[in-house]
Amino acid sequence: MNRRETYQREALLRVKQFMTEHPLTPSSPCVTALQAALTGVVTEIEGHLGDQDSGRGLARGGTSDCRRIARDLRTIMRLASDIGKTLNPAEYPGLSQLMRMPENSYVSLETRARVFVEAATPIKAAFIERMMPADFDQSLQRLIDDFVRARERKHTGRADQVGGTAGLGAAIRRGRRLARELDAIMKAAYVNDPSLLAAWKSAVRVQRVPEAGTELPARQDNEMQPAATAQESEASLSATIAAGVDGKGPEVAGFNRWWQRMVDRGMADLEEYIGNDPQSCV
Q1: Which of 60, 102, 183, 221 fits a 20 to 30 Å CA distance from 8?
Q2: Structure pTM?
């Protein structure tokens, strides 16, 4: 459930609680029917949430089991494949090709594991002579069966999760339609009761989900301050250059001294230029 659906569900729960705590007097058949429908929708939403959560857990458990069983399957199949490649091809024709390791997919793994069992069972003694466990073919078959069940759990869990998600969205939309209809009625019913009207508006209101990038930056304290005059800016710059910036370390102070020397040199050059040709500044 995303954030928007969470806010909408919370609003429906508040509306349901408000209607229970503040029944209309006198009662209205229309409001009673709408309240009953809303209660049913809220119950349905909770059921879809349960399906969504349980489906997610079942899918994750099945996925974890698939990884574990696939690892065990590949371990036994790798041992059997290595032995099969060393057997005499004249005595066991085609065995090395039958016992090739599968590709990196669960479907291929299951298929190749079944081929391994079919190929190895008739010549089981040859593998046992080469130190394979006496029940390695039975272990393979048990792992195959467990693997199939784990994949089924994974797919079932995902289907339950998807179904719960779809049903949740549809139920929330129905609940919002009921809430809007109730909102029009309750505003008319509480037009002369400001306190209950305010409480109702707070209950039915759905918190807005902020759009990405729409948050405005916090206003700085100096944003509303008047712009400094040219004289104030010049005085501030001169003070900064002369005294450095407090708390900024020797690097900034050294830069300020260098900058002051550049300013002094520029002023000296300017004075010399004006002294040589006063008409140039007229």
Answers
A1: 60
A2: 0.61
